[in-house]
Amino acid sequence: MSKYEIVKEFYNAKLWSVGMVWNAVERWITEKEYLDITGKEYEKEKE
Fold this sequence. Notes:
Order of helices and strands: HHH
Largest sheet: none
């Protein structure tokens, strides 16, 4: 299972918040994958 799949599964199971997925960008997933998982554009600064 890829890191993308792990993050997506955890987010969909509500084990991870949007903030946790945001923190995974550039470490485990790309900005595009963030959009695919959350449905939100990745912004460099946390909201």
